[in-house]
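USER:
Class, as today's exercise, take the chain set out below, and explain how the chain folds.
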Amino acid sequence: MSFPASAADILTSVLLILATITLYQSFAWLQKRSGRIWLNPMLLSILVIIPCLLLTEMPFQQFYRATEPLNMLLEPAVVALGFPLYQQLSQIARQWKVIFSLLILGALLVISISFCLTMLLLNYPQIAVSLSLKSITTPIGLALTSELQGDTSVTAFAIILAGLFGALLGPAWLKAINVHSAKAQGLAIGAASHALGTATISKTSYEHGAYGSLALIISAIVTALISPGLIDYLQVFFTGFVGI
């Protein structure tokens, strides 16, 4: 972790942090006022920040270092999602076997399907590793990608997309396929769209938030435990498959 050293760097960091917060809060106000779910403040902020970086020719790494204090808030933000989980803990405890089984199966399927499809379409192991880790929270996803020789920039982008699609389209899609249970919706969004999806669906009810938080936590732990061995196996399998 590195923070700006000179006075100019500190001033730049403060201005960029204030601009980022102001931009996000402005879009959050717009979404709340309009009631449009697709006016997601994170998505709109990204769509503004990227062109600004290109126009000013500021490297992303410089922007990332300058706004690192904001990135540090991601961990406590994830922890805060555990509050609704605590409120529903007694109910969850009665169903833990089924919940854990579903989330473990979900993690296995997400990793396997993402890796296999990428290899079949692109035959690029580095990208396959990166995309297979798209459905967990950013710090764990990036750490695993680095450990497994994937591309962290691809993983970061895929994680953002997974979160945005889950937040924007997940609840509507689940209702369209007749999944109306708060428990099922929370588990599905939390497992597929990590913190951003869970934060969005938590606005529906505490029950949604509790099961989304549980899915986010368990999916991250399970993925961290099984992905190294599973991805190694899949890489060996596809190496042999291509060699045949």
